[in-house]
Specification:
This protein has 172 residues and is an alpha+beta fold. The protein has a domain of 115 residues. Helix content is 24%, strand content 25%. It has three helices and eight strands. The protein has a six-stranded antiparallel β-sheet. The protein has a two-stranded antiparallel sheet with strand order 1-2. A hairpin with a 6-residue loop joins strand 1 and strand 2. The protein starts with a strand and ends in a 28-residue tail after the last helix.
Length: 172
Amino acid sequence: MAAGHECYHCKQWIDAGVEHDCWTTTEQALTKDLSEDLRDAWERVRETAADLGEQRIYASHHSIMFARKACYFFVRPKRTKLELCIFVGRTIKSPLVRKSVATSRTKVAHLVNIVHRDQVEAPLTDWMAEAYGLQDATTTGASRKRKKKSAPRVKGRSSGGQSRNPRSRPSR
């Protein structure tokens, strides 16, 4: 197998050393016009997330994604704020959370606006860590919650041993 990687966006195989730019967005392009306060806040968010452990950090469209197996949070840099969307396994009740939306059976997305570096502290950093660790919890939980297979049904038979076809004669 040749060295390289699969592009996260277009799913195309990219050989090692080959330039690939299906999305021209970069972290730098998304954060270049931020004010000094927002740039400081962005740097603190990125450092905090990077310290959590191994992950992919990449720009996608208007957002900067933080992902392990799947995205656990992303940041949308805006002109006057950083909009964080954090995915955790519960609904967080806090004045910091602007909106909560269930995105699946196991995840709830929480929108938080950041305007200053000092906002990137507990409980926000705790939520980021919780989101990072959620994939470990859902991976082990999913294997335990699998449904048991039921016994296979015999085709063409209903209860009482009679055929479902009204034209057929009962066997004697």
